[in-house]
């Protein structure tokens, strides 16, 4: 218990002292996970909406694949992204491996199925007659889709929170494609693992507390927006 209290104490000291290294790690974590979530939002909502609103052969198989992707292991994503970005890989010439961009790519792949799966479920829950009503008012297909997205916005905000939570806390892909390079690709999760392996449990706990605070603050903001939009 003393070790835990020491870790919490150290986290408070690091936060108030504005330690440059910890601040840099925290900002990088927020940056890569934030960008990855935004990318996954655009891709996931777009594809999820198309899948939900379109009838085609094998739709149930596609939806089941999307739902399976929601539990995609980060280490598997990290492995394949590493292979593709390796010097002898298809995109090795880009020199992206062990860069923040590589982490963004991996985290986007992790978050996209999560956003996509929630989007499909949210769109399918909307009344089918709603589409006919929107068309009856003279809306185009694109306008109809936009109205449906606005109707499902509360669920889509939940998708954003789920996607962000899935990437800000993952470790496998980030350490595989980022390399945990000090001052360049080291994020809160990879730094925590490194400090734990070195036996610096107080620092590891401090970083974990900072990670929890960061995740909570982002979700608090999104939850505030979601509940503000909730119909009374």
| Pattern of helices and strands | HHHHHHHHHHH
SS-based class: mainly alpha
What's the β-strand tally?
Answer: 0
The CATH architecture name reads Orthogonal Bundle
Subunit arrangement of the protein? single chain
Q: CATH H level: which superfamily?
A: MetI-like
Described by the principal axes of the CA atoms, the overall outline is globular
Helix content: over 70%
Pick out the low-confidence regions. Answer: none
SSE layout:
Blueprint: H1 2-17, H2 20-53, H3 59-69, H4 74-85, H5 100-125, H6 129-136, H7 141-151, H8 153-168, H9 172-178, H10 188-197, H11 201-229
Q: Could you explain the architecture of this structure?
A:
- The protein has about 230 residues and is mainly alpha-helical.
- It has eleven helices and no strands.
- Helix 2 packs across helix 8 and helix 4 packs across helix 5.
- The model has no long low-confidence stretch (mean pLDDT about 85).
